[in-house]
Amino acid sequence: MTITLNDRFAATNAASSGIRMDLKQLYEDAMEFGLTHEQQLVVDTVRDFVEQEFYPLEDEVERTGQVPRALGREIQDKVLELGFYAPNIPDQFGGGGLDTLTFTLLERELGRASMALSVFWGRPSNILCAGNAGQRAHYLDPCVRGEKIDALAMSEPDAGSDLRGMKTFARRDGDDYVINGTKHFISHGDVADFVITFAATGEDETEAGFKKRITCFLVDRDTPGFEIRPGYNSVSHRGYHNTTLTFDDCRVPASRVLGEEGAGFDLANSWLAATRLTVAAMCVGRARRCFDLCVDWAANRRQFGQPIGRFQGISFKLADMLTWIDAADWLTLVAAWRLDQGLDANRQIAQAKLYASEMLGRVTDEAVQIFGGMGLMDDLPIERFWRDARVERIWDGTSEIQRHIIARDLLRPLGA
Fold first, then answer.
1. Could you tell me which of 263, 151, 159, 270 has the C-alpha nearest to residue 216?
2. Per-residue model confidence as pLDDT tens digits over 21-60
3. Residue 90 and residue 142: Cα distance in Å, rounded?
4. Going by fewer Cβ within 10 Å, which terminus of the chain is more open, N or C?
5. CA-to-CA distance for 257 and 259, rounded, in angstroms?
6. 72-109 burial, b if ≥16 CB within 10 A, otherwise e?
7. pTM above 0.85?
């Protein structure tokens, strides 16, 4: 039987009709989107706090590359007093209990400020909610109260995007596990009281070959054989440090396994996917702050007897920048909305992370061009926004990984 081009189109249309209907409904619902009174209150409250408490501290953080622990504690206390600490943790565990969309709006506003400062606006890793009662009492509850700070350890020198390629190994020894290996690029490990660590605990044979069993451990900072060392000097986000973790016959009780042995990969996928949404939201917030400065500069900077914003070369840049920002904002908020509706959002989150992180790179680059030579001077924050933007396309899944997720989601239903 000869298959015509029309037949192939008909088969493709039938297979992809579910995707098209899903997108149609998504856009129809998005058209009706608007902030509730509570959500607007969250946005206004967080933005006011960021502008009044964080902005004045940023120059000193950039100059020293440090946030003194006493200052971090002061920020925590102010956020606790505000009633906004641990907003991402469900209220059943004592947290703020914000839905995903409202929490994403909060993260968008925090994205306007230095990450070195905003890390002390406590948002404990929600993977801790998967712990048993004893683990929640020892780790989650103190994080919710602002008494402890956690860090998440996955990346290794030879295993970044490839989580199952990790070499850190945990061997069962009686009632303990003995961990050996190295983690790097571990964000804010220097201020963490404990680290949520992923390690291999064996291998399973599958149709695709052998795959490592990944297990999640809760490792206290003062555990013998565990050391947190300074990491690399990054041009992005000064004061927000990455660290290197070493495990040298580090003995951890079996009671510190989060979830079940070998379930770490599924645990990570179940609880941590939304971290990409946080990156997208913070990129949008930072881009809007940068854009606001550009508009003000274009309206007040004069050349040839008139504001530079009157020149098409500048005004068109502003028009493009705002369009990119708004597009990234909508992609991010719609992905958050889908999570709240119980809908699959893996592709939408990947789209938001991909587009928002690359959008921020374009916006900050255009900002440098609009400001001219002053855009590269540290007298203004533009060069900082430009430097900080670069890492967003790398951490929490590179742009290439996000494109892979998006393409796989589109093609798998078609059998490709």
1. 263
2. 454 554 444 445 688 999 999 999 999 999 999 999 999 9
3. 15
4. N
5. 6
6. beebbeebeeeebbbbbbeeebebbebebbbbbbbbbb
7. yes
